[in-house]
């Protein structure tokens, strides 16, 4: 009886050891899958679209989460200290082979964490002024990616055609966003060249947005918004306040037109993500190196019009523009 029990215990131990050996082996095999770590700055419709596009782009190039690649996603919720810790996690704990930063502050947090692991920029307005690459043509380090610099000139051409009598433009952006400052400067130049007067309104945080838009509504004929994450995140507030005073909003991207802007010429946010995903795949498979891969830029955008919003504000869309435009609700 005793002997039996002993051999039972021995057998159990052996089975346990063999079992754990296989489980461990499976886990190490799992760890061997290449890891793509994504850090998104904050949630707003544009960045969420970009992340969806990234997944599609990776898939198009044959990388599927759980099959031949592990995708780790983190969202910094617009919090600098969260961005820093999450970057650490993606680099050290998760041992990401390729990192992707969605929006400038996320890319900067990753860049501060590693100068070796490849980083792909997901829709960064100006990688050079953000201190991420030496030049767009020859990035030179461990970073390359996609810029979403918007076609400001075409945007103001469209604005001039839709509201020819509106001459006073107010530009709304967050003073904390490096990426917006660049675009604000450019928009100012372009608008002034087209005979408009420009006033800029920088909000210190999202708390001041409603009040700032109220002030703008009494001082300008229209509101222009660059690709600013803080404003994109509070688009509903901006639209509510501007609607009260019947002031049209001209943002820089499709998603912000969908949220209540009137019109824009913009780069499709999902497409930005697809391009980012494809670049990440090329680096992951060793086909290309960040240092010698130029920053990808889109040279044209689509005309996007929110017909309901235009009707509400009494803005007539000329037929020749409507024909070429994508109409959104
Ligand atoms: N370009 C922004 C950045 O560099 C990120 C961004 C992409 C964005 N698409 C947007 C911001 C749309 C606002 C709206 O941080």
TrEMBL record:
UniProt keyword list: Membrane, Transmembrane, Transmembrane helix
Native source species: Candidatus Enterococcus dunnyi
Listed transmembrane segments: 6-23
InterPro entries xrefs: ABC_SBP_TrpX-like, ABC_transpt-TYRBP-like, Peripla_BP_I
Taxon lineage: Bacteria, Bacillati, Bacillota, Bacilli, Lactobacillales
Name this protein carries in UniProt: ABC transporter substrate-binding protein
Coiled-coil annotated spans: none
One Pfam family from the record: ABC_sub_bind
